[in-house]
Structures are given as C-alpha cells and as structure tokens.
C-alpha cells in the first residue's frame, strides 16, 4: 500500500473522531497528572483540522501534513500543540516529493517526526510522554516492510499502557513525581488514537 492525499485526509478525519469521542477520557487522564485540559486541547485542534482538510485542494501528502501541523500549532494550546505541530511538520518535510507516499518514505517521515519532537520537548524515551508511544511505533515501522494495521495498533496500545509504570520527568506530570506512577500518560493516549486511526486507513487501503 501507498498513502495517497485522500488516505492522509482520512487519517486525520478518523483521528478527529477519536479525539471527540475520547475528549472526556483524555481530560480525565490529564486531571490525574496534569491540568485537565488535554482532551479539550486535542478535541479543539483536531476539529479545526477536520473542518479545514475537506475544503482544500491538496497537491501532495506533504501539503496535507503541513496544513495539519500549522492548524495544530495555532489551535491546540498547551504543550501538545507545538509538540504535535512539530511532528507533522517534520513528517511533511520528510515525505515531500514522493506521492503517493511509499512505506519506506512514510517510515522515514515518522522517524523525523520523532526526532523533532524529542528535540522540541527535550524528552527521551522513558520520561512518560508521547515519545514513549512514538519511539516503539517508529521501531516497529523500521522492522517491517509494509503497512500492518493489527500489529500497529498492538504496538501503540502496549506502549501507551506501559507509560502507566513510568515516573514522569517531563511536562506538568513531572511535578507529581512518584505520584505520577500508576496513571497512563494523556499525550501517549492521544498518540495511540492517531495510530489507531492510521491503522483504520491501512485496513481500508488493503
Ligand atoms: N517535554 C515534553 N516532551 C514530549 N511530550 C511532552 C512534554 N511535555 C508534555 N508532553 C506531552 O504532552 C501531554 C500534555 O499535553 P497537554 O495537557 O495538552 O498540555 P499541558 O501539559 O501544557 O497542559 C503529556 O501527557 C505528554 O505526553
Ligand atoms: Mg494539560
């Protein structure tokens, strides 16, 4: 499978549905180890993305990703806006010039997104942030040769669940010190929804 402009639009429309459906849950997670706004932030930003994408005429997947990045940066607010904005902007640059986007190029895009968000947030693996979902997903893509929906969901879900046992050392959750242990990271959960949405697009494309 290769990712077309339409596939990439569907990806974000599906991700938006998940952000809306789980808005309260994401906010509840952020209530435990943050300031109770992650669901509100993500639902607002992705709704803007979903409103905009179908109204534009995109020439490339790179252009879709760039527009997603810009919209998230300006509308999400909180830490998550610039972080997700960075991810999709880096991906946009990495896949520029290849349409539709093949597996290797997409994998490279995910990796560039991960590198970018680690720099932006000064976070590494094991700090209880969305990096803890993106890093294993990038590893999973690098090991594969083609898009795999079921294993993608499994990888992202396990990674999200594993954030429960980590003590936070970045972002607002770090203020909770050892009390952050035992709670799933909100940003890792919104990242899981993004990969779950991608898996649905992959299934439809097969
Ligand atoms: N420095 C960082 N690097 C990477 N991810 C981070 C960082 N700080 C926070 N995050 C992610 O952002 C999420 C919180 O987002 P959100 O609640 O929207 O913003 P805020 O923390 O400003 O309220 C966290 O659950 C975590 O996954
Ligand atoms: Mg918050």
Distance between the termini: 7 Å
The main β sheet shows up as: none
Instruction: Compute the number of structural domains.
Output: 1
Give the beta-strand count. Answer: 0
Structural class: mainly alpha
CATH superfamily: DhaL domain
Annotate the secondary structure layout.
Blueprint: H1 5-21, H2 23-33, H3 38-52, H4 61-75, H5 80-95, H6 103-121, H7 131-143, H8 149-162, H9 186-205
Helix pairs in contact: 1-3, 1-4, 1-9, 2-3, 2-9, 3-4, 4-5, 5-6, 6-7, 7-8, 7-9, 8-9
This protein binds adenosine-5'-diphosphate and magnesium ion (MG).
Describe the structure.
The chain is mainly alpha-helical. It has one domain: DhaL domain (Serine Threonine Protein Phosphatase 5, Tetratricopeptide repeat). Helix content is 68%, strand content 0%. Helix 3 (38-52) packs across helix 4. The chain is globular, with a radius of gyration of 16 Å. The protein starts with a helix and ends with a helix. Bound molecules: adenosine-5'-diphosphate and magnesium ion.
Keywords:
mainly alpha, globular, Serine Threonine Protein Phosphatase 5, Tetratricopeptide repeat, 9 helices, 206 residues, 0% strand, binds magnesium ion, binds adenosine-5'-diphosphate
Task: Describe this structure in a few short sentences.
The protein has 9 helices and no strands. By secondary structure, the chain is mostly helical.
């Amino acid at each position: 499978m290769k990712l077309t402009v339409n596939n990439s639009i569907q990806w974000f429309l599906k991700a938006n549905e998940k952000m809306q459906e789980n808005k309260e849950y994401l906010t509840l997670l952020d209530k435990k180890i943050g300031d109770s706004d992650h669901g509100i932030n993500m639902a607002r930003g992705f709704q803007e993305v979903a409103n905009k994408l179908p109204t534009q005429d995109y020439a490339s997947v790179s252009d879709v990703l760039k527009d997603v990045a810009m919209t998230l940066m300006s509308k999400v607010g909180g830490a998550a806006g610039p972080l997700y904005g960075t991810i999709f902007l880096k991906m946009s640059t990495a896949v520029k010039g290849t349409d539709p986007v093949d597996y290797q190029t997409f994998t490279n895009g995910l990796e560039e997104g991960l590198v970018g968000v680690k720099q932006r947030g000064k976070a590494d693996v094991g700090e209880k942030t969305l990096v803890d979902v993106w890093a294993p997903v990038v590893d999973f893509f690098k090991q594969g040769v083609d898009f795999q929906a079921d294993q993608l969901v499994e990888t992202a879900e396990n990674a999200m669940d594993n954030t429960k046992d980590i003590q936070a050392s970045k972002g607002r959750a770090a203020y909770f010190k050892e009390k952050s242990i035992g709670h799933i990271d909100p940003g890792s959960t919104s990242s899981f929804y993004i990969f779950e949405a991608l898996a649905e697009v992959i299934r439809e494309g097969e």
